[in-house]
């Protein structure tokens, strides 16, 4: 089975995909068997989403549209979970968010 | 005894420290070459594991930000993408230490050359990772710093900071460094005095300078090596006065500011960069009284999106509280290549709103970014260096034009209240010409220097540059009274607002709204509590 899924999500975290969020992001990516990659543009370059070195090297600031794609077992679940993590502001929302 | 040597830097964490200097800059470690690539590989694997387990031990003893930093470092060490190139170099015949150093240096360069402060500051974490493994490889036991030492060097590793016992004092004095580094963040939260950007000690620095006691003044940003006896005594007075002020002030930080007689005073903060708000608890202030925008105008003119993101960040942080953004105040002592012009008398020339109106194509970009950001919070916009009402009218007309254009394109936007800085004496003398502006913000720094004709940055006329001169105070009183009569809000956002010695006079002049730099917030509130009226 080689399902392939792709999605984009807006990074709203204050300083972007930086140290702490990158740790959470790569840890979550590693829980999936699928091959997962991220990019800052639809046409790449694509980085290994399970490598913190690669994810940090992408230097994605706040306001970036992060592209996430996966291939293989559980690809859809992996993309869904990672998109959710970014959308939840890496579960750091309470520090930064405000009431509307 | 060498002559005292005084170095100026930037305060990254306020406080005072007196103690021996401890040299941070590493001495070359010796690595014993192994017999085969397989042995080199084993040596590196062992060293990486040792470094990771040392970090894992350290993580037990810390929490919060410190734990996050260590977790990040461990994740890096466990990543094959980081270690792979080093092992590949070993396989092609390199010794482990050189292979590791090259692989990490390649990563470090990537961070150092980033155009974002945040990523640039991570270079220090990468150097830390590199050096921990090198240390494990060479089994080089580090010389211990004496208690209460001032760590002096190029930069300091986060792990070094965390391993140090700061309970008996001490501080950090860096030749390079950054106030945005992890260590600076940790130093602020632990109250460890830290100064960055001291530069390389130039001519006149003898080894004796580095051997003796040093005085670190991280309130003003400086260090004295080989101080005189009189300097030590003056330093101790400043240090104990700072400690007393800070202890007392801290108890006021969380509360709204009120005078002895119960008069409420709003205290907002001045910020120069959006990242400044990361270190401020919004509940401790009444909003942002002045957000400068010159930081955006560094080497190049900023695009609309960059500006929009910067403004939006601060507006979202402030929630319902007001954020007053000042349109670009370039010129004077703040030149911007490609924007400002060279003048013989820049403080009386094309600066502030004059420059923005002369370069409407640049100004319109900022206006659009502000109009779009306005939907994300409680934005107010003010114009600097207004001298006549026509300038305000022209700026307001540009806002109206850009708003109409954005609305026509269906872009979300909102017109913020538009106010002016009161810093040119013509406005302070005859404020009635400005009855239609939404608010006044007194820029006490420029108002004082224009009224007294004495530059702030010129030590030989510094005695003339006083906000408490009756002429300056009379103008402030008159603007405050005009505001009350017209129901136009009046605030003050110059350095005087955070100066405990001036606060009483400003409140007596009728002001009830001050904006101060974040580091002065607690002390300003404490000083307000002493004001009798």
Text of the CATH class of chain A: Alpha Beta
Roughly how many Å apart are the termini of chain B? 52 Å
Overall CATH architecture of chain A: 2-Layer Sandwich
If you consult CATH, what is the topology of the largest domain in chain B?
Answer: TIM Barrel
Largest sheet of chain B: 9 strands, mixed
Greatest chain-chain contact: A-B, 25 and 29 residues
- Overall body shape of chain B: globular
Query: How many domains, in number, for the residues of chain A?
Result: 1
- Computed Rg of chain B: 27 Å
**Which structural class do you get from the secondary structure elements of chain A?**
alpha+beta
Percentage of helical residues of chain A? 25-40%
Plain-language structure description:
- The complex is a heterodimer of chains A (100) and B (533).
- In chain A, 35% of the residues lie in helices and 21% in strands.
- Chain A contains 4 helices and 4 strands.
- Chain A is globular and about 35 Å long.
- The model of chain B has no long low-confidence stretch (mean pLDDT 88).
- In chain B, 44% of the residues lie in helices and 14% in strands.
- Chain B has helices spanning 37-60, 64-77, 80-91, 96-112, 117-121, 123-138, 158-163, 182-190, 207-211, 229-253, 304-318, 353-358, 360-373, 389-408, 425-429, 444-452, 470-486, 500-508, 521-529; strands spanning 5-8, 10-13, 16-23, 150-153, 171-174, 194-196, 213-217, 222-225, 257-258, 264-271, 288-291, 322-326, 378-383, 418-422, 440-442, 490-492, 513-516.
- In chain B, the strands form 2 sheets. In chain B, strands 9, 10, 11, 12, 13, 14, 15, 16 and 17 form a 9-stranded mixed sheet that branches. An 8-stranded mixed sheet of chain B has the order 1-8-7-3-4-5-6-2.
- In chain B, strand 7 and strand 8 (222-225) form a beta hairpin.
- Chains A and B meet through helix 1 and helix 2 of A and helix 2, helix 3 and helix 11 of B.
Gist of the model:
Chain A is of the alpha+beta class and 100 residues long.
